[in-house]
Structures are given as C-alpha cells and as structure tokens.
Amino acid sequence: MANIRDLRLRITSVGKIQKITRAMEMVATTKLRRFQGRTVAAKPYSEELETLVRGLSGAVASNPESAGTSADLFTQGASGKPLGILFVGSDKGLCGAYNAAIQRKLAEMVKPLNGNFTLYVLGRKAMAEATRWDYPVAAYLDHIEGEKVTFGEAASIANLLVKDFKGGKLSGVAVCSTQFRSMARYEPRFDPFLPIAPAQGEVKAEPILEPSGPDVLGRLIPRYLETRIYHALLEAITSEYASRRFAMKNATDAAGDMKKDITRLYNRARQAKITQEISEIVSGAEAL
C-alpha cells in the first residue's frame, strides 16, 4: 500500500485537475450557448436562401444564360482536375472525439478519389491531420480563427473556392465539416458545394424575375454560397464546443471518482498506521 504522504499528494493533484476541468466545462458551456444561439438564428435565413436557389435552378438548367455571371457555377468543373475540399477542424484540443470524427469522415470520402483531390484547410488540428497523412493542400487558412470567424471571412473563403472552380483548377468543391444537432450530438458531414446541384424532382415552370434573371442570380448566387460557408463554420464551432463540454464533464466526473478512491485508500492507510502505533505503545507499556 502507498504511504500516507504519497496518497495525500495524489489527492491534492487530482483535486487541482478536477478544478481545472470543471472550469473548462463551465467556459465551454457558456461559449456553446452563445454559438448555439447564433447558429439557430442563422439557420432559417440559410434554409430559405437554399430553397430559393434550388427553386431557381430549374430555370438555369433550361436556360443557363439566365444565371448571368454565375452560370459557370451550375455546370461541372474542369474534367480531370482534383476535387477541392474545404476541411474544417479545430484550432485547440481537449474537445473529445470531435477532430477524430471529422478526420474519419474525410478519410472515408477521399479514399475512392485515389489522390485526385486537394484540401483547403481551416484549423490547426485539421492541418496536422493533413500533414500526417501527406494529403495535398492547396491553401492553409491559418489567418482565420474558427471561434472568431466573421461573415466577411467566410465570404473570402467562398470567393477563393469559386475563383479556383471557375478558373479551371477544380472539378468540383465539397465541404467536410460537422453539423450541429443538439447539445449532446453533432454529425460529421461531407456536402457538395460546387457545382450547384439542380432541383430534385419535377421542375416547376420558369419563374418571372424582375429585374432580369442574370441581374437577380448574379447577385443572389454569390451571397448564397457565402452564407453556406458561414453557416457551416458556425455549426462546426458550435459542435466543437458541444464536444469539449461533454469531454470536460466526463473528465471532471472521472477526477471526482478517482479522488474518492484515493481518499478511501488514504483513510485505510491512516487507520492502519494509527492501529500500528497503538499496538507499539501497548507493547512498550507491557514491557515496562
């Protein structure tokens, strides 16, 4: 059995760790609520914009010129070129299985591509994964912090992807990130981004646009793509903090259980020492 001094030090160390993990859990909970509010608030706008663009895609399919300067975004990219993938990970660790889940999703989706892809990486942990597996990287967006991302920065990412797609560098673009479901659940996703997919099912009658179609879609499509990237980043950071909160709660609970076990051993060792001392005193008294 460990001596009393060592057990006392272990109890103190575990207690300090428990305080740290509890503080990190509280911080993660606060930030999770803040980002969750932003994500939920942005979702209706994103969904309505998605519905509008999907509805207009039928008109673009029958008349590509109606999309104006955005017409190229509805057609397949350069044949034989790599698939561009926006790979979104975290900048920090201690967030449970968050990074591992998104890394597994990426590995699963790029396996059939036989190396014909390139990454646009956001997050230090994502970049570390890309380096470890020697994935081709077109751009490391290290100047953007996921926690502090603004709509303008999300727009700059969307514009970079659109530029490389329209410039013939990419055959298509996808986004590998996480979708926030609830405080206790998130889902790694791999969603097509470019070209814009046409509406599924029966195509409705061609809408009447005022002003003209090229004017409307020329302004609408870029904003739609920027909004998709912004909302994807919001969901990713919300999922990260949901995972971090859960991980820190588990760590705090585990530290509490460990502290109880060590305290039990400490009490037994102390009791054994006291019993031994009493026995020695009694034996000494009898000897006198």
What does this structure look like?
This protein is an alpha/beta fold. The chain is 60% helix and 13% strand. It has helices spanning 4-62, 98-110, 124-132, 151-166, 213-287, and strands spanning 83-88, 117-122, 137-140, 172-182, 185-194. The chain has a five-stranded mixed sheet, sandwiched between helices. α1 (4-62) runs antiparallel to α5 and α4 (151-166) packs across α5 (213-287).
- Note the main sheet: 5 strands, mixed
CATH fold-type name of the domain at 48-247? Pyruvate Kinase, Chain: A, domain 1
Structural class: alpha/beta
The number of helical elements comes to 5
Percent in strands: 5-15%
Count of DSSP strands:
5
What is the CA-atom radius of gyration, in angstroms? Answer: 28 Å
Indicate the CATH architecture of the domain at 48-247: 3-Layer(aba) Sandwich
Shape: elongated
Mean pLDDT: 85
N to C succession of SSEs: HEHEHEHEEH
Strand order of the largest sheet: 3-2-1-4-5
| Cα distance spanning the termini | 32 Å
Low-confidence stretches: none
The CATH superfamily of the domain at 48-247 is: ATP synthase, F1 complex, gamma subunit
CATH class label of the domain at 48-247:
Alpha Beta
The amount of helix comes to 55-70%
